[in-house]
């Protein structure tokens, strides 16, 4: 195992001698990331020192199954992405076969011990259900009632399954190191999903959170009817990539060429802010992370924060909302790697249960 010391201010010590249990360990320690760690408090010269014990992790595989694209990776012993593979999400058979074949080949090389799958939804998370591990009533054509978990059973390893938003919410909670316990992760792209993690556990309940399908107030002058086949003018139906592209009369693949000062982004932020405000009121989230293809546009965060404050209108008297909203509604701390790394975390969790 690795050993490090984290102190309140790094300049307090150049090196420190530490006794742990019965092992006398004396050396200079580097400062290491405060994730995947256990904390033990000791005192030295009146200063509280956190002794961090980091254990090597088992190598696992992870899949981020998105509505537009899929990413699969193999971890190293630090939980980082050692090798990865990316494909477009096409038909279920072709997509899952490509992912399985890549993993099957890499299993010979890496001997990974478990697989985590973070999938777009809705999905069936009830393990006693006949359709556990399936994507169910998704708006995505051809993917209704697709057996995702079953496609990887021949790997003969434990498989963990959750949504592509619940898994990142759990990982962001872990990365916060205990500072926050109620986290929401929103993705905006082909669809709009939300994941909720409370006290380190994702929320399942009847199904799993589906906040992207909440109805919302229309933006003044917005005549777009929405494209959700179930609810038409819900958040997803009004701000997914197709909805934004339809208003601009372009293909979704061209959205990256639209300038930041185009009014469409303020319209999108208006609807997304209604979802964020509902999350604040219903869940009392301590932090909201936003990811997905459309979240790469940083101006969107500025606009969303402004609209959230206007919607809440000082009703929620929390400094995170009133004074520090730039630190409250934020991009994922892992950027585009959040999906695969959160799938690694799912795999590590299922190994703990074995």
TrEMBL record:
It comes from the Eukaryota. Pfam families: ROK. Its EC number is 2.7.1.4. Its cofactor is Mg(2+). The keyword Magnesium applies. InterPro entries: ATPase_NBD, Carb_Metab_Reg_Kinase/Isom, ROK, ROK_cs. Keywords: ATP-binding, Carbohydrate metabolism, Kinase, Magnesium, Metal-binding, Nucleotide-binding, Transferase, Zinc. It catalyses: D-fructose + ATP = D-fructose 6-phosphate + ADP + H(+). GO terms for molecular function: ATP binding; fructokinase activity; metal ion binding. It comes from Didymodactylos carnosus. Belongs to the ROK (NagC/XylR) family. This is fructokinase. It is an enzyme of class 2 (transferase).
